Amino acid sequence: MIKPRPLSGFPEYLPAQQLTFNRVLSVIRSTYEAHGFTPIETPSAELKDVLTAKGGDDAEIYALTRLNGAPDERETDLALHFDLSVPLARYVAQREGELTFPFLRSQVQKVWRGERPQAGRFREFYQADIDVIGRGSLSLLYDAVLPAVVNDALTRLDIGPFCIRINNRQLLQGYFEGLGLAPEAVPQALRILDRLEKVGLDRVREGLTTEFRLDPAALAPFFDLATGRPDPHALLTELEGWAFGVTFERGVSELKAVLSGLRDQGVPTPNFRMDLSVARGLGYYTGTVYETTLPDFPQLGSICSGGRYENLVGNFHRGAFPGAGMSIGVSRFVPALLEAGVLGVGASTTAQVLVTSLQAEHRGEALRLGAELRAQDVRAEVYLEPHRLGQQLRYADRKGFRLAVMVGEEELQAGRVRVKDLRSGEETLLERTQWSQEVRQRLCPPDAIRSRAGPR
Amino acid sequence: MIKPRPLSGFPEYLPAQQLTFNRVLSVIRSTYEAHGFTPIETPSAELKDVLTAKGGDDAEIYALTRLNGAPDERETDLALHFDLSVPLARYVAQREGELTFPFLRSQVQKVWRGERPQAGRFREFYQADIDVIGRGSLSLLYDAVLPAVVNDALTRLDIGPFCIRINNRQLLQGYFEGLGLAPEAVPQALRILDRLEKVGLDRVREGLTTEFRLDPAALAPFFDLATGRPDPHALLTELEGWAFGVTFERGVSELKAVLSGLRDQGVPTPNFRMDLSVARGLGYYTGTVYETTLPDFPQLGSICSGGRYENLVGNFHRGAFPGAGMSIGVSRFVPALLEAGVLGVGASTTAQVLVTSLQAEHRGEALRLGAELRAQDVRAEVYLEPHRLGQQLRYADRKGFRLAVMVGEEELQAGRVRVKDLRSGEETLLERTQWSQEVRQRLCPPDAIRSRAGPR
After folding, report:
1. Which positions fall inside the Aminoacyl-transfer RNA synthetases class-II family profile domain (chains A, B) (predicted)?
2. Is A284 annotated as a binding residue?
3. ipTM, 2 decimals?
4. Residues B378/B436, Cβ–Cβ less than 8 Å
């Protein structure tokens, strides 16, 4: 006999928590779709050479071998994807003739990283990505669409305050070059800057001044803006007065266009900020960059990051496919928000009504009543074990059903159905002819249906 | 540069087909939930010893190793699950104290099998499982619930005729023992019988008579019933007259109870059949067994199988947890039904409306209009590339948008919005104040909303 044990780094939920997790995924998916980011799904595995084309930390990649195959048949050329960007690049390169550009795609899937698990780090986790890919070129305004989509998703999730922090790599590149750094030294400066949120202003300033012999006084105006959190308009007006050359100015003007696009879409200011400290470690990004933090959960770091990149498919295709994307790290924030009660946990059943029955000869009637409820779009389970009514009702309570339906001799004779509200305890006798419509109305009055349902 | 190439056995869709595939998954999931089968999700990987506890063909299991790790760090103790039953058994054994029984669970996930791919065989594919697990015992009537759920799902999928074929292993066990076979010889007889659909009556009869020296005349009444497709009631009445001992009689009486439960739930007769030829190769099943075929697609074999089993968790737990389950092999039938046009392929966007704009200075207004539509629950994309209107409308046509919204100087001045129906070509000018409500109404009249939306 094998004792089952939890796998470190591979999250798994009990039914009630799973339902909350599924609701989070579903809100994100439907928000992406509401903006026209159409879902694709790529295989969990890619060819190893595809996954490693960009270089990087191969040791974190899970390769697939056949268990107990003949020795020469064990190796395969496959490995599990570690993000959804490489699969997207491969997908676009492989199918570009069949896609329509700009290609707005969403992708919500598991990814795997074989790293040593720590708190908040997973080996299997969900990412929820949106990217827009152009052929040849891509309007800068899409950089304002992505955070608007994320703003919609996080707002609809109703998980409290969040801030999408936006910056521009060209602005940073121009700024540090303007300070006298050689272009190839800038990435190292960005890596230091990128740690501002984590290690604080003093250590970042010290890192920059010692490593590059910069005058702290020269850095002061920058850090005033980076830590002072001025409103976006004030920040950009200030930066427009700075003379740091063409690259810097292009960065500022791009940020300005993004700000204007966010305003046009009605994204409220507290939900986003232009933040000079956001640098994103990856060399990948070439323009706008994003990070998203939950002020009440600073320990989570960024729960949604991304940016603009010059060419998605460089390793797989000769064409130019610029793009921009953001990725919500769902598995990253859900456990913390569940624990804090910010994400609520409710019933551990998807059904609204439990149909009980008192004796074996009533179970046929119970099955009929269940089917009648479902025909009214009411989600219903029929309890079929030969247990006493009390045990059946305890089952209903424990799982969180809204209503219980009771079938007994008395009701059958009278042509009625007894319905118990499991919150109030109130019992009602309904006429057998119209009962399922009445249950439906009670669970969801018509007005609520109207206001909830969007057109399909 | 690496040329991307398709992975044999790992299906991947273009956006329009993906949307159809997603609709199939979504109908199945919501049907499962409507019956109270609550979704869980287990990690893609399990410990190797958990996966191989039951024995079986280990060579088909994909094990995980770390790519390019130090040699002693490459091996892991993990492998990808090859079905959803072993993970369910592990889940129940591990968490039984936290679950409420009977435990009705659904699970729709990918599984992996490292077999040599052939037509219709995949190495990565979706299974959509429902199981009900009892603690200690489980009412036989649940055996009638499972096919009713599958009947609902396949009916709602609207994929043409299907037949859930139902049999009982005890009936078969008793029958062959009654013919004089030793109990331990019966599994081999069932394996021969199970191939009736594939190889035909003659070869099955020949197999049984030669292997077990049975009199062909003695088998005749059985095969008359197995191939004659009598209605379920007639079949069972006939079998009740047969004298094959206690095990056989228990099987017949169980089948009778299942038939009665199916009738109570209103499952129409053409959608199911009591079929003596269904044996299911696996030793796992101990009572009711199911297979589901699509008469128009016999080459697909069974698209949904399952049965009753005596104990789910034998390898992981001392307790008795009897159960019954069915599994829809989604990846198996979707490609054939797409190809035959039985599953339709529509738009390659999730959005209903494309907001176009004629000039750069109108794009802010276009972004505002898009946000206004989404506030009305209308799914809307804003086209932001600096292309001519003709190109924007071609994009809308190719992706399958329903409506295009046009923003130009004239409309802005007049306080109006121009809306073009992309099917009829008809254009309308709407007042800017009420326009988004009107678009919403046009896409989905209130009556349609009412009848589609179920209570939540």
Report:
1. 22-339
2. yes
3. 0.95
4. yes
